[in-house]
Write a structure and sequence with these properties.
This is DUF2203 domain-containing protein. This protein has helices at about 10-60, 65-90, 90-130. The protein has about 130 residues and is mostly helical.
Length: about 130
């Protein structure tokens, strides 16, 4: 029995259909992201090849036009590197990594330092109070 034959799909089949649609959307987004990264990598390779062809010419004959073109190529390569790096880590992944780092590193160390030095302070306070009292 398919969904077309049953005019009143059950909650389970509706949830399953929604889950399939979400997976398909995620796969489409992943394919698009992969295509963008592949195109950016290819464009970066092309620009690096162009840079390696122009640079020896500029070294032999330093013309301002060649220098300007080399600067433009370097800027484009840097922009592509930023695009590639930003595509590898999306916003959700960056947030997760940030909070995980905070939880493991900063909060973990700070918490134990507070416990350690606070505990020592309390002990010293009790000792001083008992000695003076």
């Amino acid at each position: 029995m398919s969904l077309e034959e049953n005019p009143y799909p059950s909650d389970e089949s509706a949830e399953f259909t929604q889950a399939i649609e979400e997976v398909e959307a995620a796969i489409a987004a992943l394919k698009d992201r992969y295509r963008q990264i592949s195109e950016a990598e290819q464009q970066k390779k092309d620009l690096e090849a162009q840079f390696s062809q122009i640079e020896p010419q500029w070294r032999e004959n330093p013309l301002p036009e060649l220098e300007k073109e080399l600067v433009q190529i370097r800027e484009q390569i840097q922009e592509l590197e930023v695009i590639l790096e930003s595509n590898l880590l999306k916003e959700g992944e960056l947030k997760r990594l940030f909070w995980e780092g905070i939880r493991r590193g900063l909060l973990g160390e700070v918490f134990w330092q507070i416990v350690r030095f606070g505990g020592i302070g309390v002990l010293l306070g009790w000792i001083l109070r008992s000695c003076s009292g």
